UniProtKB/TrEMBL annotation:
This is Bleomycin hydrolase. CDD domains: Peptidase_C1B (cd00585). It comes from Cherax quadricarinatus. One of its GO terms (biological process) is homocysteine catabolic process. Coiled coil: none annotated. The lineage of its organism: Eukaryota, Metazoa, Ecdysozoa, Arthropoda, Crustacea.
Amino acid sequence: MSLALTSELVEQYREQVESESSSVLAMNACFKADPLDMCLCRSKVIATNHVFTHKVESEGRPVTNQKSSGRCWIFACLNVMRLPFIKQYNLEEFEFSQSYLFFWDKLERCNYFLNKMVECTRRGEDVEGRLVSFLLHDPVNDGGQWDMIVNLITRYGVMPKKSFPESFSAENSMRMTKILQSKLREYTRELRTVINKGGDDAAVTETLIRQMSEIYRIVSICLGIPPQTFTWEYYDKAKAYHKVGPLTPLEFYTEYVKIVYNVEDKVCLVTDPRPNNAYGLAYTVDCLGNMVDGRLTVYNNQPVETLMKLCCESIKSGECVWFGCEVGKRFAGKLGIQDIDIHNFKAAFGVDVNVGLSKADRLIYGESLMTHAMVFTAVTLTESGTPEKWRVENSWGEDRGEKGYLIMTSEWFREFVFEIVVDRKHVPEEVLAVFTQEPVVLPAWDPMGSLAYQVTPHTHL
């Protein structure tokens, strides 16, 4: 049976809406206003404040801004990393170069993709099959996962932002990404042709080397070529002059950063409540990565209560937390409030939104996925020790929230946070033991891999 929208039925709908004074008022308001602003719950806004029972000793300065790019995962990691670094070297403010890691990720990601296309061709995957079609839809993008940034830092190190500053294409990445995507699709066809005509490993390698030389040229022109060595000069809080270098970015990380923040000591936990994905197991996503022979992207699936508990313990010990979430749901973007009750949709539209599906259902039905990475810097605990609200360092500049910081309720955390990264010293042994398992492989299009496929510039929210 099918329902046709007959003129009689549409007329019935029209008469119903026009007879409702609340709907007419909402329609008039929506004529000149953002529907989300129209639904804003005033009582929730005035009850919001940035006062917390537990907060990291100091927060990073300046507030960072990823601009029109999807580099949130890089920004969030470097924002976490800089706090102990600033403390160690008694700095007023500091930024690591986000563009430096972005350069190497673009290069490595393109190489990873082309090698996956070779692998898919050799195992008989059809170019119009679901897997290759999915991968070709978005061959390279700005998003990423925690294990990917570990790959980058342990191979290439880090450097101060002043040693490799932002370029136009770092802050506005769409044009560069589109050029790279076009070339990767072209290169995929070429590689498949070489293999299908009986080309041996040497022929494929020769093709890849030439293709990657062209990719390197494109990325270098757009982002610049990172210096092989640099010298870091700075004043500390006491206005004393210091000079470090010349040294390589990897030496800088190993000798000056790793002693206060070792990315390999951090572990990534997710909460995926779908019935088919049991807690206490390790998962990975097919064809998800950014580096050939690099670290595998592994998810340790745990209940959301475990993630919240470990975040609290980390913040109480003075360590902030990298996390991944679905940023756009129940979010008052300009005010920086993440609260499931911040919008009263029912008062405006006569129906509620985001309440008819559970967290698991939203993942299953395509209503939810990770879209953004940020940093927890504070939490409020009740007298019983239950987390109530969280302070969030974002990377959208100072114009949103409280000079760039958001506030999140624990109810919102339970519904829309999917992933955290904490130091392994906070994690129980039985949870750490999950990392020794052979991970269950989820399909390439599984929503748990979505953070690595997202481009979420703040202008969209």
